[in-house]
Write a structure and sequence with these properties.
By secondary structure, this protein is mostly beta strands. It is about 10% helix and about 30% strand. It contains four helices and 21 strands. The strands form five sheets. A six-stranded antiparallel beta sheet has the order 13-12-16-10-18-19, with no helix packed on it. Residues about 1-15, about 115-120 and about 235-260 have low confidence and may be disordered.
Length: about 325
């Protein structure tokens, strides 16, 4: 009987892995939505309790932990397994800035996923070239109307893909004005000219774009955050590559072929009947299929998930 129990426990641990917890070193509060980078092209996130899991058979030496408002921390797997709890230090420079300005910096987090099924809560959304995904960010309910709210950063949670290289392809981020709930944005109402960026090799899947210099206010109507892929000519297909948009050199090689360039984004499962946040998608290439040039007629609303796009604000 002892051998049977031992074998059962071994199989259980092997299948489900070891759980670890991340907490705020100062307050001892759990750090949710922290990005756990396995430094091998894959990773995970902490849940609302600050817990994440690593399978026992994973072949990694260390992990990198990043979270908005905290210092980045790299820790060896050996040290991690000997403690099970990681303490993250708050970013003092950010805290000092908040104190000096007497303002609050806040990352607007999405509501908790409505489903307990992991695949519904976090999907990999692969965008082909020329596609746009937008997520509506409402004006926070905890902030009184009329108060000045500055948009400091755009936060994009990217993902890996069946093609590892595609996880590093460049994309464009933008902000669009919002007028009425459940109506998609108008492309002419962009608040930025569009910023080209990408996830860098060996860095976190969470891409953070600083736009504080643009001095943008968050409207009481909210705002749309967009994730836009570039035309095919700007991806590593061997021709028409603009130096400003280049992906890592190892992705651009002679004879490289990939069916449908684009980029990869994370999504979150939501309850469409309860959420005030929602997403739309649009394929710019579809205008070639219709006589009507108004491609904005072809926005598609997502029913049970949103794209993991958000903003950091100061007020």
């Amino acid at each position: 009987m002892k051998y049977i129990i031992f074998i059962f426990l071994f199989i259980y641990n092997f299948s489900f892995g070891q759980e670890y917890r991340i907490i705020n070193k100062t307050t001892q509060a759990p750090v949710s939505e922290a990005n756990i980078d396995f430094l091998n092209g894959s990773g995970t996130f902490t849940d609302e309790k600050g817990v994440f899991k690593i399978h026992l058979n994973i072949q990694i030496d260390s992990i990198r932990i990043t979270s908005v408002g905290f210092k980045t921390k790299k820790i060896s797997l050996k040290d991690l397994r000997s403690n099970l709890t990681v303490l993250l230090e708050e970013d003092i420079s950010t805290l000092e800035e908040v104190v000096l300005k007497s303002k609050t910096v806040e990352l607007l987090k999405h509501e908790k996923p409505f489903s307990t099924h992991r695949l519904l809560n976090s999907r990999i959304i692969e965008f082909r070239s020329g596609e746009i995904g937008v997520t509506y960010i409402p004006f926070p309910e905890n902030i009184e109307k009329g108060k000045e709210v500055i948009i400091k950063k755009i936060v994009v949670n990217t993902e890996s893909s069946t093609s590892k290289e595609r996880g590093y392809y460049p994309f464009k981020v933008n902000l669009y004005s919002a007028y009425r709930m459940y109506f998609p944005p108008k492309l002419k109402d962009s608040l930025l000219t569009g910023i080209i960026t990408s996830r860098k090799e060996g860095e976190s899947k969470q891409v953070i774009i600083d736009i504080e210099d643009f001095d943008l206010r968050l409207s009481e109507d909210g705002v749309f955050v967009s994730f836009e892929t570039l035309p095919d000519k700007y991806y590593p297909n061997g021709t028409g590559i603009d130096p400003a948009y280049k992906t890592p050199k190892r992705l651009i090689k002679k004879g490289y072929v990939y069916a449908g360039y684009g980029a990869v984004l994370r999504s979150i499962g939501v309850n469409p009947k309860k959420t005030k946040t929602y997403s739309f998608s649009l394929n710019k290439n579809r205008k070639l299929m219709f006589i009507d040039d108004n491609i904005e007629n072809y926005w598609q609303m997502k029913k049970d998930y949103i794209y993991d796009l958000t903003i950091e604000i100061e007020y």
